[in-house]
Amino acid sequence: MPINTDPCEGTSKRWRKDPNNWILGIFYYNKEDLRVFPPKKNEDMGSTINFANPKSILALLMAMAFFGMVIFFILNKK
């Protein structure tokens, strides 16, 4: 596995602008991109999740579990 997973700026821009890498225009899915959180179509809007990367799915599930536990403890506070 390569140490530096960040592509060059030109490759990143090409991947971001390619409509084939976006499912329904909002879900980023690119098997070539090894980044877990690549930038959104509009870089100024932050990052998104690369659903083609298993590490991204794991990160999403962990975040959902964390927030689910927080809500559970708030609602069950006595």
Describe the protein in words.
- This protein has 78 residues and is mostly helical.
- The protein is built from two helices and two strands; from the N terminus they run H-E-E-H.
- It has one domain.
- The chain has a two-stranded antiparallel sheet.
- The model has no long low-confidence stretch (mean pLDDT 89).
List the helices and strands and how they pair.
Layout: H1 9-17, E1 22-23, E2 27-28, H2 54-75
Antiparallel strand pairs: 1-2
Low-pLDDT stretches: none
Strand content: 5-15%
> Rough shape?
elongated
- Helix share bin: 25-40%
Tell me the number of strands.
2
Q: How many H/I helical runs?
A: 2
Mean pLDDT level: 89
What class do helices, strands and sheet pairing give? Answer: mainly alpha
Count of separate structural domains: 1
Sheet of most strands: 2 strands, antiparallel
Distance between the termini: 48 Å
Run of helices and strands = HEEH
Oligomer: single chain
Give the strand line-up of the largest sheet: 1-2
Radius of gyration: 16 Å
Q: What's the short story on this structure?
A:
This protein is mainly α. 40% of the residues lie in helices and 5% in strands.
Task: Give the tags.
single chain; 78 residues; mainly alpha; 2 helices; elongated
